[in-house]
């Protein structure tokens, strides 16, 4: 959704809203207050646009995590005992304040991540939707089932787990944080949030908004810092009962090991290498637009991006040709310019990684078709033009590895069986997109794809009651609807005898 603001208005707003982060180091948000790290350490937050320092941020460690976990444990006693209707009211207040501050959130997110305004303005509002969706379900979160037997009345109840940890990545950080934090709060849990060190700002806005909305102090705490210190300590803290994590598969595996000694419950939303499969009987105009959208929106830094394009060989040249034409017209530009689609990537390290795949593609024998770079791109930024790799095959690294940038690998296939074989020939299994005019084939292929979510004749269109998550190296568990509550809550069965069953008599 395009913003109603002009580029100049966005620039003025950015100067205004980011001044606070430049003026003083951003602290953690613990027990309703902004505090520095106990150690006094900070790290620099740099702009993806030109590499300049935007401000200093508190670098948390085990001490700061312990403070936040203590605050969360204390606040949990109040929050978990509050009526669901009251939690609902407060979480709706959070959503209202997100809507009120949506422009500030979107502008801050653009400057912090390099994602463009046309997507970040919608992402801010999606944050509010996430809060409203789970707020409405808060009053029923404890509800269970009635499972009577001949001699007993059995019924189940659900109880919030306790203080939980939420660890999030840097792609669309505000929206993703709300997707994990809103259900935790609606369930009655208190939260310690560790945002990604490359995009710390909007997590602070969320904590501020939550307090203003009436969330008791200590129910939502934010500790900044690098994964190896703040993140690791959060996964090891004994007061934290579960970790909801969104990030790379290799980090998920580390978190599972780190959390093992304290028996952490984990929920993982990890990487993807998602196929979009186009059969020759598909509506090609819709399919090409969806394929372009699903890889070149959000800078391609999107877990559900369709980063592998599988096209039936009879239409491969025509389809990739049409796609390349559209790709070359995609405007790369300043993230605050409402006309920009692709902005700078998040960080020099990620930028270097994405650029390296252009060479890897060529070295492996693919043809690299380049999009149009921004001629006015500021020096020192992480700018990249979109790209398409044609003539690729499934063994190539660009067909196997998650690149997480605006680059697409196009692979031909011969028939249905070949499409399924190639689609499943990766370690990931998050999402799959399928384009065909034949209903039977749509069902057959959807069943055969190894992925947690399949869209047929569609791009990724989210419906919040549906389950979100991946298989294989793409994740453990599901979010959305009641699945989120299952993770953040403990189920208890209560069996009450009707006094009709026999009780074994031992010892007389
Ligand atoms: P990352 O795994 O490097 O970092 C994610 C978070 O984990 C950060 O906050 C980081 O500080 C923290 N972390 C790092 N090491 C840690 C450790 N040892 N213990 C605890 N925390 C630690 O991921 P990223 O590069 O920030 O994000 C990109 C990745 O996220 C991609 O792989 C993408 O596919 C994935 N992602 C998945 C989904 C999904 O829903 N499946 C959604 C968005 C992003």
Helix content: 40-55%
CATH level-two architecture of the largest domain: 3-Layer(aba) Sandwich
Heteromolecules bound = nicotinamide-adenine-dinucleotide
Indicate the radius of gyration in whole angstroms: 24 Å
Strand content: 15-25%
Query: How many structural domains does the protein architecture include?
Result: 2
Mean pLDDT over the full residue set:
97
The CATH homologous superfamily of the largest domain corresponds to: Aldehyde Dehydrogenase, Chain A, domain 1
Structural class: alpha/beta
User: Total helix count?
Assistant: 16
Strand ordering within the main sheet:
13-14-15-12-11-17-18
Q: What is the 3D form?
A: globular
Give the beta-strand count: 21
| Largest sheet report | 7 strands, mixed
Low-confidence stretches: none
Query: What is the CATH topology of the largest domain?
Result: Aldehyde Dehydrogenase, Chain A, domain 1
Could you tell me how far the N terminus lies from the C terminus, measured between alpha carbons in angstroms? Answer: 77 Å
User: What's the level 1 CATH class of the largest domain?
Assistant: Alpha Beta
Describe the protein:
- The protein has 508 residues and is α/β, with parallel strands linked by helices.
- It folds into two domains: 7-270 and 474-492, Aldehyde Dehydrogenase, Chain A, domain 1 (3-Layer(aba) Sandwich); 275-456, Aldehyde Dehydrogenase, Chain A, domain 2.
- It is 41% helix and 19% strand.
- It is built from 16 helices and 21 strands.
- The strands form six sheets. A seven-stranded mixed β-sheet has the order 13-14-15-12-11-17-18, with helices on both faces.
- Strand 11 (275-278), helix 10 (284-296) and strand 12 form a beta-alpha-beta unit.
- Helix 3 packs antiparallel against helix 5 (117-137), helix 3 (84-100) packs across helix 7 and helix 4 packs across helix 5 (117-137).
- The structure holds nicotinamide-adenine-dinucleotide (NAD).
- Residues 167-171, 176, 194, 196-197, 226-228, 231-232, 235, 246-248, 251, 254-255, 258, 269-272, 303, 402, 404, 430, 470, 474-475 line the site of nicotinamide-adenine-dinucleotide.
């Amino acid at each position: 959704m395009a913003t109603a603001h002009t580029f100049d208005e966005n620039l003025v707003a950015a100067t205004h809203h980011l001044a606070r982060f430049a003026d003083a180091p951003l602290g953690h948000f613990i027990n309703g207050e902004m505090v520095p790290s106990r150690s006094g350490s900070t790290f620099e937050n740099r702009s993806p646009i030109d590499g300049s320092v935007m401000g200093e941020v508190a670098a948390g460690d085990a001490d700061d995590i312990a403070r936040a976990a203590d605050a969360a444990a204390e606040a949990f006693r109040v929050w978990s005992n509050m009526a669901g209707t009251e939690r609902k009211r407060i979480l709706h207040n959070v959503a209202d304040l997100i809507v009120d501050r949506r422009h500030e959130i979107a502008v801050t997110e653009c400057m912090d991540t390099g994602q463009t305004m046309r997507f970040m303005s919608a992402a801010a509002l999606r944050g509010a939707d996430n809060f409203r969706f789970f707020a409405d379900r808060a009053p029923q979160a404890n509800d269970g089932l009635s499972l009577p037997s001949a001699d007993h009345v059995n019924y189940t109840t659900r109880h919030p787990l306790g203080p939980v940890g939420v660890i999030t990545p840097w792609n669309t950080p505000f929206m993703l944080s709300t997707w994990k934090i809103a259900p935790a709060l609606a369930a009655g849990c208190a939260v310690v949030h560790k945002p990604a060190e490359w995009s710390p700002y909007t997590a602070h806005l969320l904590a501020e908004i939550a307090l203003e909305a009436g969330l008791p102090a200590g129910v939502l705490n934010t500790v900044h810092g690098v994964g190896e210190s703040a993140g690791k300590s959060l996964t090891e803290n004994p007061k934290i009962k579960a970790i909801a994590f969104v990030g790379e598969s290799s980090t998920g595996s580390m978190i599972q090991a780190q959390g093992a000694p304290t028996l952490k419950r984990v929920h993982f939303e990890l990487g993807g290498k998602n196929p979009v499969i186009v059969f020759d009987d598909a509506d090609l105009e819709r399919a090409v637009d969806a394929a372009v959208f699903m890889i070149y929106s959000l800078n391609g830094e999107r877990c559900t991006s369709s980063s592998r394009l599988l096209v039936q060989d009879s239409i491969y040249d025509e389809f990739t040709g049409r796609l390349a034409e559209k790709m070359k017209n995609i405007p790369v530009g300043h993230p605050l310019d409402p006309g920009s689609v692709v902005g700078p990537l998040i960080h020099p390290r990620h930028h270097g990684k994405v650029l390296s795949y252009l060479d890897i593609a060529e070295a492996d024998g693919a043809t690299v078709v380049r999009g149009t770079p921004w001629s006015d791109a500021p020096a020192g930024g992480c700018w990249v033009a979109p790209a398409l790799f044609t003539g690729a095959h499934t063994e190539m690294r660009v067909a196997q590895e998650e690149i997480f940038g605006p680059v697409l690998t196009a692979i031909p296939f011969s028939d249905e069986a070949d499409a399924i074989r190639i689609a499943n020939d990766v370690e990931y299994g998050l999402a799959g997109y399928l384009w065909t005019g034949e209903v039977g084939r749509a069902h057959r292929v959807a069943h055969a794809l190894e992925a947690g979510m399949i869209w047929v004749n569609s791009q990724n269109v989210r419906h919040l009651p549906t389950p979100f998550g991946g298989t294989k190296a793409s994740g453990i568990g599901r979010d959305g609807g009641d699945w989120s509550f299952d993770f953040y809550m403990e189920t208890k069965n209560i069996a009450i005898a009707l006094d009709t069953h026999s009780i074994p008599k031992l010892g007389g």
